Amino acid sequence: MCVIDRASQFREEIATPRLRLRRPRTEDAGAIARLAGDFAICSMTTRMPYPYADADARAFVALVGAQNRKRDNTFVIDHAEEGLVGAIGFHQPAGQPLEMGYWIGKPYWGRGYATEAANGALAWAQDDWRRKVVVAGHFADNEASAQVLVKTGFLYTGEVQTRHSRARGAAVKTRMMVWLA
Q1: I need a surface site. Which of 9, 30, 34, 152 has the fewest CB within 10 A?
Q2: Which CATH superfamily is domain 4-180 in?
Q3: Is the pLDDT score of 103 beyond 90?
């Protein structure tokens, strides 16, 4: 089933063979907080705090609900049997290229969910959103994320940025990559 947001003409949901990417709902906050509350998750992101509490998850759901969908789009990643397993999204800071970020809850690592979700989200960005260039970065100490990005067609740019990890409270070397439609 293809659900379309009539205001934006973007599909609200993305279906892959095992996953459904959809807008987060208020009732997702508990699962988001439970998964994102693991330091192994939030320490590999720039924006997630640690500890990550229920209030942070509720704020995330509200923030996504208020997104300007012409510039930013975030989805939770649902598995039919497992339920919510992570999140993936795109944001575009002023004057910067479109950037993709994602996380998968630790109990679901190693099952290919991140790669499958990223492939689905990138196809959506190309088809629905007409985007041709997407950037992503991974912390230099996150080899698993590097592998996901390579598998989905991202190429290293040679640029290493220093980005602040809110959870770590520190600057972290970030290897930048680009995906071209």
Answers
A1: 9
A2: Gcn5-related N-acetyltransferase (GNAT) (3.40.630.30)
A3: yes
